[in-house]
């Protein structure tokens, strides 16, 4: 694994840079649209829906383009387009410009993140540990991006877009220099010993039922997880706690993710992936049960601990399992993973707000989220029974 990490470090740094840019933009969207551009919440919601839809579309198209054309050329085109979009946003971020820049940003970022995941799938083959390693760097980008907001954002987006330009400029240099190393004549540079040790003995493709269950699990899990990123902030304030507590929870989330993923990168094995996915879903379900009864800071951090462990175990497990049993067209399948994940993130806040408004309240919403994840556990067990019997 260490040898493989040395070979693919440019890909890991690319994941960090692209996700840093992504993480510095997304949390500001609602604040800037509503507070600074004075758009109504309904209008802001439609813009966010368009952004999320383009993110889903970009993720899927990025995978297809990566399979059909030279990966280096596709990645370079996406990075140049991201630089152009950031330059436009640097000077045109008013009520008309910012929504356009945001929607294009969603489309291009979805494509680039899928391309990075696709290369990870090609490089790792059946070695799921590389997904865990990539996820560490992606979450490090999350920490860097969200931490940069408080320093850079002071009623102006120019410092934010300047950071985006730095990230995309460095990413372009890395891509231009190292893309050929990551894809030599279309074949990944991998660690042969790790590949042989983790290669599945049954080379049959993943059944449609199992693939469908895994993709549906992504929509439902991210739909519930999105409550933490939206409605839980209001729930915490209703408990009489400050917004800073909510901020500290996410700092804790980012740091704990890196620690847990560091451990997972060492112990994750192909045969244990179905159980890894199930265990992660159980932990996420338990986090909502804890959250529904939490009224003090200690309970909130306990719930976040379960959520983070579940996320760290489940999220890299799904693409790794799909990659191990789908031979060829890695871009297509990893594009589906990113697209279904983005769909859940887009629908989650809308569904959560509707449930709260239908007299379920926050406690009812959290219990529904717990039940949804518990139901997904049953679906995954039924849909992955062939793999569980061999584990």
Can you describe this structure?
- There is one protein chain.
- With 391 residues, the chain is mainly alpha-helical.
- It has two domains: 2-198, Growth Hormone, Chain: A (Up-down Bundle), CATH 1.20.1250.20; 208-390, Growth Hormone, Chain: A (Up-down Bundle).
- Helix content is 84%, strand content 1%.
- It has helices spanning 2-7, 9-25, 29-36, 41-68, 71-91, 97-124, 129-152, 158-182, 192-198, 208-229, 231-238, 243-267, 273-293, 297-324, 330-383, 385-390; strands spanning 183-184, 187-188.
- The protein has a two-stranded antiparallel ribbon.
- Helix 6 (97-124) packs antiparallel against helix 7, helix 6 crosses helix 15 and helix 10 packs across helix 15 (330-383).
- The longest helix has 54 residues, at 330-383.
- The chain is globular and about 50 Å long.
- It starts with a helix and ends with a helix.
- 49% of the residues are buried.
- Mean pLDDT is 80; it is low at 184-203.
